[in-house]
């Protein structure tokens, strides 16, 4: 909470801020054009020192693959260590901090622009991996939390509303945001997994009451809260994540922020003792007839062509998945269920082929990737990176490894082996 004891304190604070702004302008004006270019590009971060003390450029592809492999191993270890369930129907609120801290330009061009760009990609990836789930957007500005989109399954509507947001001002209020989303999520059925993802730029929170009581209320409501910070670590955010079972991470740069954000796209594990198994009644609507004019229950207006017909009340809806506004039936399609199925039985992470096996003359290894048929023979100074499926023993390049685990969700070698056995 922020308190001001007198007008003198306020005047002194304003004067100090003005002096800091003047100092920043002087520093910017004293730099040459070429200096500003290097300062903005931060090109020194793309260099690393080897054992002999020489500087070399970082192989971004190798670093990205190493981070991906490490993330796969961590997920596999977490899955094997505990008896878990996957939340296939998730209700996620993304809380975006639009206080004055979001206008800083340490992320190009500003934190707000970088967050909006990567949240757009996250929303599409989220619905691709969680077709039965719902997302809502909340912003924090001038100490007030505002819900700009309700929970829904349409990525285009969320993205359109997000891109229309402009301007950053005022302070951030963590308590107001948590109170708002807790009020929306407390009415979610028990089969739905309640989650909050905060993209927090500020280093402070200006709250009207005790934020610790709000955190306890979120814990009682079984809301999993995670925070991605765009500045330094804040104690209250860390405490929030620890109490509710979420994760708290700090983005080092824009690329790191993108990776941290996309890690929240797959459904998180839910401890079996706290996850309640329920039967959910769903409807599989048919496509509406062409050339027929009907009232859309989503937008409450007449539309021609397209849409789907609810099998229970015969109401028209525009897109799937959704919940019928008339009878409340959950409407899905069979591909949505099929795409959600792979989270229950994920593919085993592929194993890296050791250098000893690659250099051994007794083992004759394949020279092409089983997936894309590209050569696995090293060229020049590039390292020979390949992985192998522990079941079918087929070798793949790292690009195919990422594609198989993140998009395809089926091993081509295992599928071809299974197909040959059935013939």
UniProtKB/TrEMBL annotation:
Signal peptide: none
One example GO MF annotation: zinc ion binding
SUPFAM superfamilies: Cysteine-rich domain, vWA-like
Span list, region Disordered: 1-30
Protein's name in the database: General transcription factor IIH subunit
Keywords: DNA damage, DNA repair, Metal-binding, Nucleus, Transcription, Transcription regulation, Zinc, Zinc-finger
Subcellular compartments: Nucleus
InterPro entries per record: C1-like_sf, Ssl1-like, TFIIH_C1-like_dom, TFIIH_SSL1/p44, VWF_A, vWFA_dom_sf, Znf_C2H2_type, Znf_RING/FYVE/PHD
Stored Pfam families: C1_4, Ssl1
Location, primary (coarse class): nucleus
Keyword Isomerase annotated: no
Biased composition (Acidic residues): 17-27
Family the UniProt entry places it in: Belongs to the GTF2H2 family.
